[in-house]
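Possible regression after last week's pipeline update?

I re-ran a chain I had predicted before the update to compare outputs. Posting the input and the new output here so someone can diff against the archived version. Not blocking, just want to make sure nothing changed silently.
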Amino acid sequence: MSIATATFSIKDFRFRMNESSAFDKDQKLSADQECVRRLALGDVQAMEELILRWKRPLFAFFLRSLPNFADAEDLTQKTFVRLYGSVSRYQPKAKFSTWLFTIARNLLIDELKRRKRRPQEVELEDFSSFGSTEGTTKREWEEVLSVEIEKLPENHRSALLLRIQQEWSYREIADLMNASESSVKTWIHRARLALRQALNDFRK
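New output (post-update):
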């Protein structure tokens, strides 16, 4: 089953939430926050809307660090299950995407610690300009990139992927990772340098 056609069964979400006191009736909410408010009241349709809107970005995030499509799909579904279970604790002052990817990142960290598998061999667009060298296949090139991504510290890797893949601002990444913007910029800069140096070395 591909993520393009995946439909996560609502029967996986077996408990009904009560109204969250965190929501002010007069508060202006984003579309996602409104879905969370409805979900807190037990509106299952709101969960379906969130799944349709966020399954692709979540799947793409997981696919960069997990070994195959099935693993990425599994963690995508676990993220929605975790979201459903914690919806009553959501504070609407927090941006929904930050809250969602905090859940996703925590699940990813736990999974990588448990399995210690290699990241999925998917080329980062940011480094596609390197191209393949004479005598080097695209497969070999992507394998090198995957190995080098795995070597990055987790905070460097997550910050880089959120910046390149999800196109998050430094401020959004900083909020998610509970760090300063300057730290995030430093992590991303060091990650880029490390990958570029490794790829340059491979070309020699």
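Follow-up from reviewer: compared with the archived run. Residues 1-7, 12-21, 117-123, 129-133 have pLDDT under 50 and may be disordered. Marking as no regression found.
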